[in-house]
Design a protein that fits this description.
The complex is a heterodimer of chains A (about 450) and B (about 450).
Chain A (H helix, E strand, L loop, with lengths): L1 H17 L8 H17 L3 E6 L6 H12 L3 H6 E7 L6 H11 L3 H4 L7 H11 L9 E7 L1 H4 L6 H12 L4 E7 L4 H4 L2 H4 L6 E3 L7 H12 L4 H12 L25 H14 L6 H12 L3 H13 L11 H12 L2 H7 L3 H16 L7 H14 L8 H13 L3 E3 L14 E3 L3 H10 L5 H8 L4
Parallel strand pairs in A: 1-4, 1-5, 2-3, 3-4
Antiparallel strand pairs in A: 6-7
Helix pairs in contact in A: 1-16, 2-3, 12-16, 15-17, 18-22, 19-20, 19-21
Chain B lengths: L1 H9 L4 H11 L9 E6 L5 H15 L4 E7 L6 H13 L11 H10 L7 E7 L11 H5 L2 H5 L3 E7 L16 E5 L4 H9 L2 H15 L4 H10 L2 H15 L6 H21 L7 H16 L16 H11 L4 H15 L5 H5 L3 H12 L9 H4 L4 E2 H11 L7 H13 L3 E5 L9 E4 L3 H11 L12
Parallel strand pairs in B: 1-4, 1-5, 2-3, 3-4
Antiparallel strand pairs in B: 6-8, 7-8
Helix pairs in contact in B: 1-2, 4-5, 8-11, 9-10, 9-12, 11-12, 11-13, 12-13, 14-21, 15-19, 15-20, 15-21
The chains are: A alpha/beta (about 450), B alpha/beta (about 450).
The structure holds adenosine-5'-triphosphate (ATP) (2 copies) and magnesium ion (MG) (2 copies).
The site of one magnesium ion (MG) has 4 residues of chain A, from helix 3.
Chain lengths: ~450, ~450
């Protein structure tokens, strides 16, 4: 019983984190990309395609899913080569080219050769693949964070890849994944004209809440033994991918090592189903809130990870609606208000003085002198804030700056003394008002002053 | 679980965050989340708790947990950061940690041949500094799990909320954990645990000073109870809490002020039960100490000095030559008046001029727009000398000497150059760095009324 629950926790955590190849929804897009790659593998066709969608919409997952579809076929294994580049890692074309050489296992061939241009170098690499027999291997280039490659000097890499793919000098397929919807506009004209203009858009799948609930259940339920076997079977094929740059096949979630007690699983799965059975239940309304904040599966997965990690044989043997609403509540608080409530009364007073200044002067910038004068006027007539020295207030002001509640106006840095450096407020008045209301044991006079600048 | 219990005992009032941490990263052989963002005010125990948590976890789990704890203030470039992380993580197999760029770093991590159950944690303190590094560092750190295939978790520790980390390329949202600020009663509880240390401090002081009746005094210190200390802390927080909630600052100041609190008791002038007299003795001390928060004076036993008054003392004791004083005053006037008003302020006919100026400015001055609030403006040496001659009644013709006196004032950091410091001539521009109170004090010494010449006050 104890061990069973720990097994479930481990299993769910690992599946949430490392199931890189299971794609929910997007069947049409997946088919589209799969066919493209299949044609490259089987017929040696060249092509290019951009996969566009917001962060966490499943672009990488889609590519991985397609790869795992294709990898069992011997044709694919023998005829293709994978080259994986990431815009965050391969920050210039030199790094990219080096990595391409390594991934194509041509370091030895290219060693000691001097190339006049990038194009020559790439052509050499591709030519190396034509080894004796009629047809050379196809190369699949996967460019993650594609938009970042557009910032490379002259877009040389992109130009050459698209050029090869368009003129069919060698069979290559270029797939770019990006979260920038305007990515086409980033391409230079000569690059754009060589791109096939195949674009696949991915937007979060669960376009209705029903599906979202189903997904919740799917992600928390434990599969049957037979299903587990199937998954293990599918995943074992991933080993045949031999790419150093790609890591997902090496650490993919593998259910083979888990053994579950069937009775226990039944009651567990049942518990999950019951949780969201009732349309008006607390659990469903928590999920509704979550859905309204962010529909994406990646967001849901992080939420579930937090939920699952709370499982504990002694204290928390199953998932409850209270737990869920507790975690959802952490997403709805405003961290700025929370932080404001942790300031000292003095620091809060300075923020209030800043608010008054900004309201009166229509968000004019301010410096410490101006704010301190305003605060000192209040402090003089108050009972709680009397006798606060200038130096201490200056420290408080600096803390506000450190917390980035106020931001220095960049053009005033330099030789200005810190008392006079101009700042602006990085808060809304609403956030401050919320904080004044939430603040524990705030002296009444301060709360009143916050409401009205008249002392 | 043991780790949780142990730390929960050691650090009161941190049960919730400890629970969350244990859930997320406290189970060996389980998957870690890709990234965690921890934020909260200074002194809420972020650094201390995390370090203790890792130490305890590693002790129980030596081979299966690798932790890198790096402070981004020390590792101020991405290269140093990467190399420091690798040094921690790859430990003994650190054949070569030279890292050129992010690509290298990720490559080295990938090459770590690890058993699948080994966990890696990279903990980055003062993580807001990551924003100053190359744009690809932060987004990539947040998805190291995807990039390296290791069971790795990156923890960002900062005083800033996550929204301050958003940059051009959006980032993956990590799990956030908030370290709430301590309430007043929680602060009291934590400070109260410091009782033994405060007691020891007094004993140490007595042993150092060696007064005649040392033994009786030590006996008195011995009789101090926890309850008595808590009462003192209540008084102490009554004064301090509104200005400072930083625990480490409060802890140090509370210890220091406790020695003052005990003084009348050790002298035998006040009995330990006479709380109201004790309050009267300490109230003044506490107030002066309040003006000193964050501005620690080295020795605990040096009498606390009042900071604002301190400035005036400096001003009074400053042995400037007579003309030097006038030069400083002139510089102040030049800094805070616009040159347009020079003529009106310095024409011969005193009485009339002041009337007129008053009329002009009487209603127009808005407090916030006063020059003395906006800060000093720069002025040329020519203008400084002109004002100097205008406010000085006698005629002096020693420009050369005056120029060297200006240099002296610059060396004393009373003036600073804005431009032209290499060859000082009439067009070099200067700025006055002292405040109004300071100048008023200087001008009192030479019997001069500086307010009369400031357009703010006319
Ligand atoms: N349609 C989906 N089916 C299955 N999992 C999904 C889907 N969409 C998102 N996810 C999950 O969300 C997380 C992020 O997905 P993925 O890495 O594929 O996003 P991405 O589009 O590549 O994002 P980025 O632009 O940041 O690279 C993964 O954990 C993935 O499992
Ligand atoms: N719950 C607690 N119990 C006991 N001591 C605590 C507790 N919380 C904080 N402290 C003490 O407060 C001091 C400051 O803590 P620490 O340096 O960890 O804060 P921090 O959150 O890292 O601050 P910063 O953001 O400035 O780095 C330490 O001496 C620590 O021991
Ligand atoms: Mg991706
Ligand atoms: Mg810290």
């Amino acid at each position: 019983m104890q061990d069973d629950l720990i097994q479930i926790r481990r299993f769910l955590k690992e599946r949430l984190q490392r199931d890189y190849t299971t794609l929910h929804g997007h069947e049409a897009e997946r088919e589209n990309v799969r066919q493209l790659l299949q044609r490259t593998a089987e017929l040696g066709e060249s092509n290019s395609l951009l996969l566009i969608g917001p962060r966490g919409s499943g672009k990488s997952t889609l590519i991985n899913a397609v790869l795992s579809d294709l990898v069992p076929s011997t044709d694919f294994q023998q005829n293709t080569m994978l080259v994986h580049l990431n815009g965050n890692l391969h920050t210039d074309d030199k790094l990219a080219l080096k990595s391409i050489t390594v991934q194509m296992q041509l370091e030895n061939a290219a060693n000691g050769k001097a190339f006049g241009s990038f194009a020559e170098n790439l052509a050499f690499l591709l030519a190396c693949l034509k080894s004796g027999n009629k047809r050379s291997k196809s190369v699949i280039f996967i460019l993650d964070e594609f938009d970042l490659f557009c910032a490379h000097h002259n877009q040389t890499l992109l130009y050459n890849l698209f050029d090869v793919s368009q003129s069919a000098q060698a069979p290559i397929c270029v797939i770019g994944a990006t979260c920038r919807l305007d990515v086409i506009e980033l391409l230079e004209k000569r690059v754009k004209s060589r791109f096939s203009h195949r674009q696949v858009f991915l937007f979060p799948t669960s376009d209705n809440f029903e599906k979202y609930l189903d997904l919740f259940e799917t992600l928390l339920s434990i599969p049957t033994e037979r299903e587990l076997k199937q998954i293990a079977e599918r995943i074992s094929h991933l080993q045949k991918l031999n790419s150093t740059e790609l890591t997902m096949h090496r650490c993919h979630f593998n259910p083979a090592k888990y053994k579950f007690n069937r009775k226990f699983i039944e009651s567990w799965n049942n518990g999950i189903a019951v949780l969201i059975d009732e349309a008006k239940s607390v659990a469903v309304s928590s999920l509704k809130t979550l859905y309204e904040i962010d529909k994406s599966e990646s967001f849901l997965k992080i939420f579930l990870f937090r939920l699952v990690s709370q499982l504990d044989p002694d204290a928390q043997p199953n998932i409850t609606a209270e737990q869920m609403s507790e975690i959802v509540a952490t997403y709805t608080i405003d961290p700025r208000v929370e932080l404001l409530c942790g300031l000292s009364v003095l620091e809060l007073c300075l923020v209030i003085a800043i608010k008054h200044h900004s309201e009166i002067y229509d968000r004019d910038p301010f410096n410490f002198e101006i704010i301190f004068a305003r605060f000192a006027k209040f402090a003089k007539v108050s009972t709680t804030m009397q006798g606060i020295e200038r130096a201490v207030s200056l420290k408080a002001f600096e803390r506000l700056r450190h917390m980035e509640v106020i931001l220095p106006i960049s053009n005033s840095v330099g030789k200005v003394q810190k008392d006079f450096e101009m700042h602006r407020l990085a808060l809304t008045y609403g956030q401050l008002n919320d904080a004044v209301q939430k603040y524990q044991a705030l002296p009444t006079e301060v709360a009143q002053w916050a409401q009205s600048s008249i002392i | 679980m043991e780790v949780f219990n142990k730390l929960n005992e050691r650090f009161p009032c941190r049960k919730n965050v400890l629970k969350t941490l244990t859930n997320l990263i406290g189970h060996s052989e389980e998957m870690l989340p890709a990234a965690i963002h921890i934020y909260g005010h200074t002194g809420t125990g972020k650094t201390t708790l995390l370090k203790n948590f890792f130490n305890e976890s590693i002790r129980r789990n030596k081979n299966k947990l690798n932790v890198a704890y790096v402070n981004c203030v020390e590792s101020y470039t991405s290269r140093i950061l990467f190399e420091n992380i690798l040094e921690y993580i790859s430990g003994a197999i650190a054949d070569d940690i030279k890292t050129e760029n992010l690509k290298d770093f990720v490559e080295k991590l990938r090459r770590i041949q690890s058993q699948p159950e080994v966990q890696y944690i990279i903990s980055l303190d003062n993580a807001e500094r990551l924003r100053d590094m190359d744009a690809n560092v932060l987004p990539s750190l947040l998805r190291l799990q995807q990039l390296t295939g290791l069971n790795i978790c990156v923890i960002l520790i900062s005083q800033l909320p996550l929204e301050k980390f958003y940059c051009k390329t959006s980032i993956d949202d990590p799990i956030t954990i908030y370290f709430p600020q301590y309430t007043k009663s929680e602060t009291l509880e934590i400070l109260s645990a410091d009782f033994k240390n405060a007691q020891k401090l007094i004993v140490a002081l007595l042993n150092r000073k060696k007064p005649e009746d040392l033994s009786t005094k030590l006996e008195i210190v011995d009789t101090v109870t926890r309850e008595f200390f808590n009462n003192y802390l209540n008084l102490f927080l009554g004064v301090f809490y509104k200005a400072c909630r930083d625990l480490s600052e409060l802890k140090i100041t509370a210890r220091k002020c406790f020695t003052f609190y005990m003084e009348p008791i050790l002298d035998g002038t006040v009995s330990m039960s006479d709380v109201s007299r004790l309050w009267r003795c300490i109230a003044g001390q506490l107030r002066t100490a309040l003006s000193q928060v964050y501005i620690r004076s080295g020795q605990p036993e040096t009498p606390v000095v009042n900071n604002d008054k301190e400035i005036l003392k400096v001003a009074q004791s400053l042995e400037l030559p007579y003309y030097g004083k006038y030069l400083l005053i002139a510089a102040f006037i030049a800094s805070y008046n616009s040159s347009k008003e020079d003529k009106r302020l310095f024409v011969k006919n005193h009485g009339k001029r002041r009337k007129r100026l008053q009329n002009v400015n009487a209603n127009a001055k808005v407090t916030e727009k006063m020059n003395t609030y906006i800060g000093p403006k720069s002025f040329s040496v020519d203008r400084l000398l002109a004002i100097f001659y205008a406010i000085l009644d006698e005629k002096v013709g020693l420009t050369c000497n005056l120029l060297s006196q200006i240099s002296t004032l610059v060396n004393l950091k009373l003036l600073s150059f804005v431009s032209g410091e290499n060859v000082m001539d009439g067009t070099s521009r200067l700025q006055c760095t002292v405040g109004l109170e300071f100048v008023i004090c200087i001008s009192q010494v030479v019997g001069f009324n500086v307010r009369q010449y400031l357009s703010d006050f006319n």
